[in-house]
């Protein structure tokens, strides 16, 4: 990804910008006001969205294919392949 910047405008905006004052003293941090509580705020309770069984099976199928490719290319051992394959297959039972 490429970005193009107008350096003159950037320098100009940086030279006119004011920086915040930073506390350099050591010691306890400044007190923070407590957040206001919202009482009796209306909200809707919704059920969590569950992945459909078909989506789960497709995802596992894709992972198994990728795992097989890794094994065929010699990037993982047969033991690693077998262990991970069994973990994936156990998810669809």
Please give a structural write-up.
With 93 residues, this protein is mainly α. The protein has a domain of 44 residues. It is 47% helix and 0% strand. It is built from 3 helices and no strands. The protein starts with 6 loop residues before the first helix and ends with a helix. The model has no long low-confidence stretch (mean pLDDT 76).
Fold topology:
Layout: H1 7-16, H2 53-72, H3 78-91
Key features of this structure:
about 90 residues, mainly alpha, 3 helices
Strand fraction band? under 5%
SS content category = mainly alpha
Unreliable spans:
none
Straight-line N-to-C gap: 43 Å
Tell me the total number of β-strands.
0
Q: Per the principal axes of the C-alpha atoms, what is the gross shape?
A: extended
Major beta-sheet overview: none
**SSE string:** HHH
Mean pLDDT: 76
Radius of gyration, whole Å: 28 Å
What is shown here, in short?
By secondary structure, the protein is an all-alpha fold.
């Amino acid at each position: 990804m490429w970005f193009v910047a107008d350096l003159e405008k950037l320098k100009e905006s940086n030279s006119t910008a004011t920086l915040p004052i930073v506390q350099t003293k050591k010691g306890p941090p400044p007190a923070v006001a407590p957040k206001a509580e919202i009482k009796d705020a209306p909200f809707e309770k919704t059920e969590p969205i569950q992945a459909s069984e078909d989506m789960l099976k497709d995802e596992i199928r894709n992972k198994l294919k990728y795992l097989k490719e890794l094994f065929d290319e010699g990037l993982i051992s047969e033991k690693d392949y077998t262990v991970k394959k069994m973990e994936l297959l156990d998810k669809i039972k």
